[in-house]
Specification:
The protein has 22 helices and 15 strands. By secondary structure, the chain is an alpha/beta fold. The strands form four sheets. Strands 7, 8, 9, 10, 11, 12, 13, 14 and 15 form a nine-stranded mixed beta sheet that branches. Helix 4 packs across helix 8.
């Protein structure tokens, strides 16, 4: 036991667990980290009580919630890639710059002093925190989107922290107790760089932890306009330091879990990286190299060259070959790509374009959207639903819901074997060609194609195709559909808008209205992301805020779902209003691809072989 390098073992296990969390983050998360919750209301003897966030750890929210109702565990797990990613970029830059400076100067001293080591670790770290704080606290960095912010923070921290790597290489600081001056420069430089990598990862994570307490968060805060009793919550993007940014209020209000759990994530991983660095130093001290005899044995076991040799001598290495072959097979199955759902059922792009042209010609009369035009579109939609064999009416045996002569909603549904958590594909059919015309054509094509498929094989889950009259004041159109067949708190909606626009190559998704009460809901989000990856259609996270009144109504009435749009919030005013609507500005190929994406999402949701498992795919 005396020769066991516990520092290296414990540190390596910690880093492997960190990698596991980053690889399998979606499987570990039960609630979307961008999902907001306005709190629960319940009535006792005609009195209304409201449970406000943050809520302490409980069965549903294992690590509690933050003041916006976001699940803290989900924020930490999803934020792992962000926080560790910044540390990784910064560390690589430090290693490159430090190594280049060392190569240029070729200055390797032989007199080692404790003051040098103190400077390299403590004084330089303090300077990095001070300089980094003043740079990253500038408005420029606060306005960056997430991916830009990750690179920006990584580059800044890399540039201001590279001198410690240079001093380590230049002074041989890691070998000062048992230094062999007969070693070549390369024999000294490579181990120092490797050890410096783990040391600097720990140092950058420590810096990010301090930044969190100082209120530095990563990227733009799209939730800045949301007011809470805590004021404006500073972080939009999930990352460890962002949760710590409310530490002052958390201490004052005794919500200690908001400090404790992110701090635990930081401490465990900082210690893990430092333990690996210390363990490698132990190997140098004991063996003269960072690679111990046990590590060499493991390396030989994993070596492809050794595997080929073992196969050639199969008679003497039968057991080893079988074990290695099983490992190779498991790895192959793990990394094998999934079957592309897009090959299962193709949309009819010609029919989509016919729908779009009809909607455009019916909706606009003398260049304006009128009541008469909206009525013509409503009748067209209803007739298309009636002509699909498996689609049933939603509103008391009617496809059209007349709202006191002031508006009309249209909806049909396909019955599934399992009616819990029906999927509602919804749009507003009254707001012009850009905003909802393409979405209306898309949902009609989904209804026809899925109706045809369901006539051959009954779906596992119920689907609703909903078209809302959004011209009514205060979202009355959306409010009127609630409580009808398969449209309510048990449903999950996907709201579509601005599909197929020529100028936009990216779809944006807002999941802030997805309630975290069901694990099922997060699987719906994963379904959307997985299908987008299969078809190579990028979907970026965004917060639409007050872009769509229908979503406000759904959210206020505890109906969970998400919105997908071809326009992000910052560009909304450019397209909203219908005055610039022109069919020629719609890209047929792009529209076809995006509708195919919706088709794949619905197919995955509705046709599953395990509908009896309830909320599981």
């Amino acid at each position: 036991m005396k020769n066991i390098n516990w520092s290296l073992i414990i540190g390596s296990i910690t880093i492997l667990l960190l990698l596991f969390v980053m690889i399998y983050e979606d499987a570990l998360i039960t609630a979307d980290p961008y999902s907001l919750d306005k709190g629960l209301e319940y009535v006792i003897k005609d009195q209304v009580f409201k449970l406000e966030h943050p809520i302490k750890p409980n069965r549903t929210d294992k690590l509690g919630t933050d003041p916006l109702g976001r699940n803290v565990l989900s924020l930490l797990i999803k934020g792992t890639k962000v926080t560790v990613g910044i540390a990784f970029i910064a560390t690589l830059i430090r290693l490159v710059l430090g190594s280049l400076a060392f190569e240029i100067t070729h200055n390797r001293k032989k007199n080692y002093r404790e003051s040098n080591r103190f400077y390299c670790i403590f004084i330089s770290l303090a300077l990095e925190i001070i300089i980094g704080y003043f740079i990253l606290n500038r408005n420029y960095f606060k306005r960056l989107e997430l991916h830009q912010a990750i690179w920006g923070y990584g580059i800044v921290l890399g540039i201001i922290g590279w001198t410690r790597v240079f001093h380590s290489l230049n002074q041989g600081i890691f070998y000062n107790w048992n230094y062999n001056y007969n070693k070549t420069k390369n024999e000294i430089e490579l181990p120092t760089v490797i050890i410096s990598f783990f040391l600097e990862m720990g140092m950058v994570l420590f810096t990010l932890c301090i930044f969190g307490f100082l209120g530095i968060t990563v990227g733009i805060n799209k939730y800045a306009n949301i007011s809470t009793k805590w004021g404006s919550i500073p972080n939009y993007n999930p990352e460890w330091g962002g949760i710590l940014a409310v530490a002052k209020q958390a201490i004052a209000l005794r919500k200690y879990w908001l400090i404790l759990y992110p701090l635990i994530f930081f401490i465990i991983n900082i210690v893990g990286f430092l333990l690996v660095a210390h363990g490698l130093l132990n190997n140098i001290n004991n063996y003269g190299t960072i690679v111990s005899r046990r590590m060499k044995k493991i390396g030989r076991f994993l070596s492809p060259k050794q595997y080929v040799k073992d196969v050639k001598r199969f008679k003497w290495n039968r057991t080893i070959v079988v074990v290695k072959s099983m490992i190779i097979l498991l790895i192959a199955l793990w990394i094998a790509p999934s079957v592309n759902a897009g090959d299962e059922y193709k949309i009819d792009s010609v029919k989509v374009w016919q729908d779009l042209e009809t909607i455009y010609s019916d909706l606009y009369i003398d260049g304006d959207i009128t009541v008469e035009g909206r009525d013509k579109v409503a009748e067209y939609i209803a007739n298309e639903l009636r002509n699909v064999d498996r689609i049933l009416p939603v509103f008391n045996e009617e496809y059209i819901q007349d709202i006191e002569g002031q508006g009309k909603n249209i909806a049909g549904y396909i019955w599934g074997k399992y009616s819990n958590n029906p999927l509602v594909i919804v749009t507003d059919y009254t707001n012009g060609l850009y905003e909802n015309g393409t979405s209306t054509a898309a949902i009609l094509e989904l209804a026809r194609s899925i109706g045809e498929k369901s006539s051959r094989k009954m779906p596992s889950r119920t689907m609703v195709f909903l078209f809302i009259d959004g011209k009514m004041e205060d979202g009355r159109g959306a409010y009127s559909v609630l409580g009808n067949k398969n449209i309510g708190e048990n449903s999950f909606y996907i709201y579509l808008s601005y599909l197929g626009l020529e100028d936009n190559d990216v779809l944006y998704m807002d999941t802030s209205t997805v309630f975290s009460g069901y694990r099922r809901h997060y699987k719906n989000i994963r379904n959307v992301k997985d299908r987008s990856k299969e078809l190579g259609i990028p979907i970026k996270q965004d917060y639409f805020d007050l872009m769509f009144k229908d979503l406000e109504i759904f959210s206020e009435n505890k109906v969970s779902g998400l919105a997908i749009s071809g326009v992000k919030k910052d560009d909304y005013n450019k397209y909203h209003g219908g005055s610039q609507d022109d069919v020629s500005k719609i890209n047929p190929k792009k529209l076809e691809e995006q509708i195919q994406l919706m088709m794949n999402i619905v197919l995955k949701y509705a046709w599953t072989d395990k509908y009896w498992l309830g909320d599981s795919f």
